[in-house]
Amino acid sequence: QVQLVESGGGLVQPGGSLRLSCVASGFYFPSWPMSWIRQAPGKGLEWVSGVGSSGRSTDYAESVKGRFTISRDNTKKTMYLQMDNLKPEDTAVYYCTQGYAEERALQMIGNGVRGQGTQVTVSS
Predict the structure, then answer these.
(1) How far is CA 36 from CA 21, 124, in A?
(2) pLDDT for 16-51, tens place per residue?
(3) Do 64 and 50 meet the contact criterion of CB atoms below 8 Å apart?
């Protein structure tokens, strides 16, 4: 079955950087577009970014555009999210899921296609 394992979160000061990873198994990773989704405390799921199956296509939520960079390495079955210039409002649990567009990714995560998540806390 589909397994996704997120890692790389932590506590960072505003303006700092983190790099998240999502290791996939149980499906043919190179064929699947993927996304990052986050959930802040007391709030709903928010789509953050998506990457096409080859890695050439990417898309971002307006709130992270210019600060976050999504990428993938199909040989390692791994997706990444480089997060720079972090802000307190980026504090959330970050999940990876299948799907590129916001609607599709939210549908997939609603179907349980996600890992355990990785906590990102931005605070001074």
Answers:
(1) 10, 25
(2) 999 999 999 999 999 999 999 999 999 999 999 999
(3) no
